[in-house]
Design goal:
Distance between the termini: 47 Å
Largest sheet: 8 strands, parallel, barrel
Structural class: alpha/beta
Helix content: 40-55%
Number of strands: 8
Radius of gyration: 19 Å
Shape: globular
Bound molecules: SN-glycerol-3-phosphate
Strand content: 15-25%
Number of helices: 11
Length: 219
């Protein structure tokens, strides 16, 4: 399972990219706003900077809700950087926009996916990747990981090329479970990426190795 960073914070992306495990970045209007990005030009220049740190797909979301608006924005975003994935919501207007953009060879990340049926529609429309929001499903008492598994199983059995990206990831257990459920990608907050490496036995073991080595080298 590949790991993407789910943030528009340039410091986090710069630090995360240095680790050598980040294959792409996803952004959305909320993440952009929380990174202090307030207009389209600022979004565009932040995305260009992100693309200079990360050699992989960068997802950029449209803010129109009508099909033509999404298509116009998607065509524009497709020219911002060398490897854009245009994020289009899983509405009926969005499905039509996905079909139009995909038909023009523009890669699309179908976002705000909460059901297998939405994923089927997006795949039929030609989405490159579908993003089930697992944390938000868990928040309302549904099983986000089960949705990942259902979509991944179905796509594998039907040889559908659309990839499954676990999104709305909140903690390291989501990463483990998404990988086990067959997600091709998990897009994770920076803090979750760091938590994936953390284990108290690693810290304790390292402290003991260093202490033993220092003791031995003093005798
Ligand atoms: O990838 C989608 C993500 O940014 C949404 O996460 O935590 O706002 O549900 P969250």
């Amino acid at each position: 399972m590949k790991l993407f960073l789910d943030t528009a914070n340039l410091d986090e992306i710069r630090d995360g990219a240095r680790l050598g495990v980040v294959s792409g970045v996803t952004t959305n209007p909320s993440l952009a706003a929380s990174a202090g990005i307030g207009d389209r030009e600022a979004y565009r220049s932040a995305v260009a900077e992100i693309a200079s740190f990360v050699d992989g797909p960068i997802s950029v979301e449209v803010v129109s809700t009508d099909t033509q608006g999404m298509v116009d924005e998607g065509r524009d975003i497709a020219n911002w950087i060398p490897n854009p994935w245009v994020k289009i919501p899983s509405t009926i207007e969005g499905i039509e926009a996905i079909a139009t953009l995909a038909g023009e060879g523009i890669r699309v990340n179908q976002t705000l996916c909460f059901s297998v049926n939405q994923a089927i529609l997006g795949a039929q429309a030609g989405a490159t990747v579908v993003s089930p929001f697992i944390g938000r499903l868990d928040d309302i008492g549904h099983d986000g990981i089960a949705l990942i598994r259902d979509i991944a199983d179905l796509f594998r059995e039907a040889a559908v090329e659309t990839q499954v990206m676990a999104a709305s990831v909140r903690h390291p257990l989501h990463c483990l479970k998404a990988a086990q459920a067959g997600a091709h990608i998990a897009t994770v907050p920076y803090r979750t990426l760091i938590q994936m490496a953390q284990h108290p036995l690693t810290d304790a073991g390292l402290a003991r190795f260093i202490a033993d080595w220092q003791k031995a080298s003093q005798t």
